[in-house]
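[agent] plan:
  1. take the single chain provided in the ticket
  2. run structure prediction with default settings
  3. attach structure tokens to the ticket
  4. add a short note for the reviewer (M.T.)
[agent] executing step 1
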Amino acid sequence: ELKGYLNVEVSDPGVSIGDSFQRTLKAAAFSDARKAECDLACARWLVKSARPVSLPETDEPFRNMISILTRDAWKPPNRRNVADNILKLSTSGQVRVQVWFSNMVMDGVKPSMAGDIWSHKGCSLMGICMYGINSNWVLDEWLVAATPF
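[agent] step 2 finished; step 3 output follows
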């Protein structure tokens, strides 16, 4: 049921779910911290889904969808902001990589490393990735460092 999915309570039969939902969205203003969180989430999504860093800036359907979903409370980041957030993500993941690496070595696995360069419309990143097959025979891939150039 759509009402349950949106978590919207409609007590007045004359008020539609859409109206109630729109009022809820209007009331939920985005703070600077929330906008920064959205920028970081956007960068994470771009990396995990192998999308170009310029997508939030250039893809009109994406921008329209975000505009509708946030009622213009958040604008997608530009490619420089995306690159900066990718660097933040790589920095925050270093501890997880160290734990993963330690576990792999303890399991007798010797992870391999490779360098790669990603570039799209003026934004270039050099990255170092680490690979290894875990105890469940699943290939693990970690971005351990990235820098724009």
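[agent] step 4 note for reviewer: Residues 1-12 have pLDDT under 50 and may be disordered.
[agent] ticket updated
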